C-alpha cells in the first residue's frame, strides 16, 4: 500500500494481485475473465476489427476459391444473424476479439433453441469457425471461439434419389418445355443448370456425344470437358 501511494508499485506485484483476484472467482467465471484479460493485453488499435465492418473485410480477404453468389448470400445470412444477436444481447461489445468461447457457446444455444435443423446448425457453426480463422490476423485473435462448439448429430445427408417409377411419373406429367430438360438430364446425367445452358454447338452428331464443361467445376478446372453420350 505504501509503494502504491508513492507510485512505486511494481508490475510483478500488480500481476500477483490480479491472479489473487481471479482465484476468488467461481471456476467458470475465472476462465471467462482470463480470456477477456488475454484479449485486452494482446489486442491493439491496429489489430482489432470492429463487428460493424467485419463482414466487408472478410469478403475482401484473399481466398483460394471465390464463393458463388448463392453461397455468399447464405454466408451473409449466417453472419447477419450473429451480428444482430450480438447487438441485442451484448451491445457494449464492438470488436471481433470480444466474442469469447463462452459467448460463442451462448449463441450456439440460441441457434439450437430457434429450432433449426441439425444440418443448418452445423452449417452456421462451420462457417463461423472458418470466418474467425480467416480473420485471425486482421482481428488480432488469440484463439478461435468456435473451435470447441460441438456439431449436431443426425444432420441430413442430402435428398434421396427418385426411383425409376417416380422418375417416369415426373417426366410424363411435366409441361412440354420442362419435359425436354428432364429427358436430357435423365439420359445424360447432366445437372439442371447445365441442361438449361446447353447449346447446339455442344452436340456432336457425328459420334453421338454432348461435350460441355459443368458449371460446378468450370471455375476451378482446366481439364477436358465432360462427354456424356447423347
Walk me through this protein's architecture.
This protein is mainly α and 230 residues long. 56% of the residues lie in helices and 2% in strands. It has a two-stranded antiparallel ribbon. Strand 1 and strand 2 form a beta hairpin. Helix 9 packs antiparallel against helix 10 (176-188). The longest helix has 21 residues, at 69-89. The model has no long low-confidence stretch (mean pLDDT 84).
Write the layout of secondary structure elements.
Layout lengths: L1 H4 L5 H13 L3 H16 L8 H9 L9 H21 L11 H13 L4 H17 L1 H4 L24 H10 L2 H13 L3 H5 L6 E2 L4 E2 L4 H4 L12
Antiparallel strand pairs: 1-2
Helix pairs in contact: 9-10
Q: State the distance separating the first and last CA atoms.
A: 89 Å
Unreliable parts: none
Which secondary-structure class do the elements indicate?
A: mainly alpha
Number of strands: 2
Strand content: under 5%
The spatial strand order of the largest sheet comes to: 1-2
Major sheet characteristics: 2 strands, antiparallel
Order of helices and strands: HHHHHHHHHHHEEH
Number of helices: 12
| Envelope shape | elongated
Give me some keywords for this one.
2 strands, two-stranded antiparallel sheet, 230 residues
Compact overview of the structure:
This protein has helices at 2-5, 11-23, 27-42, 51-59, 69-89, 101-113, 118-134, 136-139, 164-173, 176-188, 192-196, 215-218, and strands spanning 203-204, 209-210. By secondary structure, the chain is mainly α.
Amino acid at each position: 500500500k505504501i509503494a502504491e501511494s508513492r507510485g512505486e508499485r511494481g508490475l510483478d506485484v500488480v500481476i500477483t494481485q490480479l491472479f489473487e483476484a481471479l482465484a476468488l472467482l467461481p471456476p467458470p467465471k475465472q476462465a471467462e475473465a482470463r480470456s477477456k484479460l488475454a484479449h485486452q493485453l494482446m489486442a491493439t488499435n491496429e489489430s482489432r476489427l470492429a463487428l460493424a465492418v467485419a463482414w466487408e473485410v472478410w469478403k475482401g480477404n484473399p481466398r483460394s476459391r471465390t464463393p458463388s453468389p448463392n453461397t455468399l448470400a447464405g454466408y451473409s445470412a449466417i453472419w447477419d444473424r450473429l451480428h444482430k444477436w450480438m447487438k441485442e444481447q451484448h451491445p457494449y461489445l464492438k470488436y471481433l476479439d470480444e466474442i469469447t468461447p463462452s459467448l460463442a457457446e451462448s449463441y450456439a444455444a440460441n441457434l439450437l433453441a430457434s429450432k433449426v435443423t441439425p444440418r443448418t446448425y452445423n452449417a452456421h457453426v462451420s462457417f463461423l469457425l472458418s470466418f474467425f480463422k480467416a480473420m485471425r490476423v486482421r482481428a488480432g485473435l488469440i484463439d478461435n471461439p468456435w473451435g470447441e462448439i460441438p456439431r449436431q448429430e443426425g444432420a441430413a445427408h442430402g435428398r434421396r434419389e427418385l426411383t425409376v417409377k417416380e422418375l417416369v411419373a415426373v417426366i410424363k406429367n411435366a409441361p412440354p418445355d420442362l419435359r425436354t430438360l428432364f429427358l436430357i438430364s435423365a439420359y445424360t446425367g447432366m445437372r439442371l443448370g447445365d441442361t438449361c445452358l446447353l447449346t447446339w454447338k455442344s452436340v456432336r452428331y457425328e459420334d453421338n456425344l454432348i461435350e460441355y464443361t459443368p458449371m460446378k467445376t468450370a471455375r476451378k478446372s482446366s481439364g477436358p470437358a465432360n462427354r456424356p453420350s447423347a
